[in-house]
Amino acid sequence: MRRLHEWYLQACRNCDRYLTVAVRDEHYFRGKEEVNLEFEELFQLFNQDALDKSVISCYCLFHFIILIIELNNGVVLVMDSKRKEHGEWANMTALLQRAWKWFINTVPDKLRMELTFKDRLQKLITQQKMSAGGRKTACVTGGNGYIASALIKMLLHKGYSVKTTVRDPDDMEKNSHLIDLQSLGPLEIFRAELDIDGSFDEAVAGCHYAFLVAAPMNLNPENPEKDVVEPAVRGTLNVMKSCVRAGSVKRVILTSSIAAVSSRPLQGDGHVLDEESWSDVEFLRAFVKSGAWAYPVSKVLLEKEACRFALENGISLVTLCPVVTVGAAPTPKVQTSIPIILSLLSGDEAMIETMKQIEMATGSIPMVHVDDLCRAEIFVAEEESARGRYICCSLNTTAKEIARFLAVTYPQYNVNIDRVADLGDRPRICVSSAKLIGEGFEYRYKTLEQIYDDVVDYAKATGILPA
C-alpha cells in the first residue's frame, strides 16, 4: 500500500491525469477492455479509505461503478467512485449477480453461508443506503390531508426523518395529529402555499424524496380553470422547482388520481385500463355538466406538465394514480370516500347516490386501502428501477357486490340491496395494477372482507357508524 501511495504521488507530480487499466472479462463482464481511471476519482477512493480499509476484502471496479463488500457485517454497497448513488442502471442487479458469483468463489468457506446473494443482496443494499448517511429525509406536502397524514406516519415508522407542509401550522384543528405524530420520530412542520413560488424551498431542502400529495380539491368550483386547474398545475410545478433548487432530491413521487385515467367515454363492457390510458380532456370540458370536469382535467394536465418539467430539469419522477382510497388515517378530518363506501351501512342517501354515480361514470368501484397506497408510495420511491405512472388498485368491484357482502357480513345494519338493484353485477371497466405488482409490490388488503374489517372499525371510532 505504501508503494502504491508513493506511485500515486509521483504520478500527480508528473501531471498525469489518468491511469489506463486493462480489465479482464471476469472482472468487467463485457469482454476485454481498457478503462481510463482519472486520478481525481482515485483520490476520492483514497480520501474515503476505500483502498486501505481492512474490513473491505474486495472491491470490483467496472465503468465508474464500485461494488464494496464488507465481510465483517455482510454489507453490500453500490456507488460510483465519487460516492454518489446511481439510479440509471436498470440491469444493475443482473450485473451484480455476475460480480457476486465471481466474488463468492474467492471467499473462505466459513463466510459463504453469510453472504447469499439471492435472498439478501437487495435488502442489504437498502439497509446500507439508509445507514450510510443516517436517516433518509422525505418531504410530504399537504400534511393535514388524509393520504399525506397516513404516509407521514408510515415513513416515521420506517425510520425516515419527515418534513411536511401545511398552509397554517398554527391551526390546531387541522394539524393536531401532526403534533401527535412527532412522538414517532423527527417530524418538522413548515408553512407553504402551492400558489407561492419558492414557498416549499425550506421544506424540501436536504430531502432525499419529495412526495407531492397536496392539491386543490373543489368538485363544484365557480370558475373551474381559475379555481382548480391552474392552481393544481402551478402548485405542482412550484414544488418541483423547489426540488431542483434543493439539489438533494433523488426522486419526486407525484400522487395523481384514477380520475386522470378513467374519465373517458367507453362503450360496452370488458374494458381494462392501465397506465397508458388518459382521461379525455376535450370530452370532459365539452360534455360534463357544471364544474365537475375540473378535477380530472387538472390531474391530467398537472401530470403532463410535471413530466415535461422533470425531463427538462433531469428530475426522477414517478407518478401514482390511486383509486377510491379507504382506511384509517391520523388526520381528524374523515376522507369523503369513507362515508361513500359505508353509505349502505349508514343509510346516508346522499352518499349512496354518490357511490352509484361513481360506478355509472367509471364502470366500477375500484378500491385501495390507504396503508397499501402508502406502502406503494414508498416502494416506488425506493425502487431505483421505478419509472413513469403506476395505477394503485387492489380491488375492482361494484355497488351491488358491496351491498350483498355487507348484508351478509353486517346484518345488524339492515342493508337495503334494492337501493343499487339498477346497477350491474360485474364491473364494466376494470383498472389494472399489473405494472406495480409486476415490479414486486404486493397488496395486503385484496378482498372486501379485509378492507371493510378495518374501515368499519375506523368508522365506529370516528362516529360515522354507531359503536
UniProtKB/TrEMBL annotation:
<feature type="domain" description="NAD-dependent epimerase/dehydratase">
    <location>
        <begin position="139"/>
        <end position="385"/>
    </location>
</feature>
<comment type="pathway">
    <text>Secondary metabolite biosynthesis; flavonoid biosynthesis.</text>
</comment>
<comment type="similarity">
    <text>Belongs to the NAD(P)-dependent epimerase/dehydratase family. Dihydroflavonol-4-reductase subfamily.</text>
</comment>
<dbReference type="InterPro" id="IPR036291">
    <property type="entry name" value="NAD(P)-bd_dom_sf"/>
</dbReference>
<keyword id="KW-0284">Flavonoid biosynthesis</keyword>
<dbReference type="InterPro" id="IPR050425">
    <property type="entry name" value="NAD(P)_dehydrat-like"/>
</dbReference>
<dbReference type="GO" id="GO:0016616">
    <property type="term" value="F:oxidoreductase activity, acting on the CH-OH group of donors, NAD or NADP as acceptor"/>
</dbReference>
<dbReference type="GO" id="GO:0009813">
    <property type="term" value="P:flavonoid biosynthetic process"/>
</dbReference>
<dbReference type="Pfam" id="PF01370">
    <property type="entry name" value="Epimerase"/>
</dbReference>
<dbReference type="InterPro" id="IPR001509">
    <property type="entry name" value="Epimerase_deHydtase"/>
</dbReference>
<keyword id="KW-0560">Oxidoreductase</keyword>
<dbReference type="InterPro" id="IPR038765">
    <property type="entry name" value="Papain-like_cys_pep_sf"/>
</dbReference>
<keyword id="KW-0521">NADP</keyword>
<protein>
    <recommendedName>
        <fullName>NAD-dependent epimerase/dehydratase domain-containing protein</fullName>
    </recommendedName>
</protein>
